[in-house]
Specification:
Blueprint lengths: L6 H21 L4 H19 L8 H30 L1
Helix pairs in contact: 1-2, 1-3, 2-3
């Protein structure tokens, strides 16, 4: 099994991380702690929990977990933004 992550997964994950950081900063009212917890600590916590299992102890699995976490975080942030925009109407 290939243990190197795909370059496209790394690039998309980093782009999603930057976008999530920006929007989490806006949603958190400029709170750096909110951004650090929501965008960075959450994926690291999920990686730590999944590293208990031997299957997930390679870089490919870790980047795949980061990618999926960033994708779910993006959906949560954009859903929150849409509901805030709806309340402003």
């Amino acid at each position: 099994m290939e243990t190197k992550p795909s370059k496209i997964v790394i690039i998309i994950s980093v782009i999603l991380m930057v976008i999530n950081s920006y929007f989490a900063y806006l949603l958190g009212g400029g709170s750096i702690g909110y951004v650090a917890g929501f965008v960075f600590a959450l994926p690291l916590l999920i990686i730590a929990i999944s590293s208990i299992f031997k299957v997930y102890r390679n870089w490919r699995s870790r980047w795949f977990i980061i990618f999926n976490t960033m994708l779910v975080t993006s959906l949560a942030i954009f859903g929150n933004l849409l509901s805030m925009a709806d309340k402003l109407k």
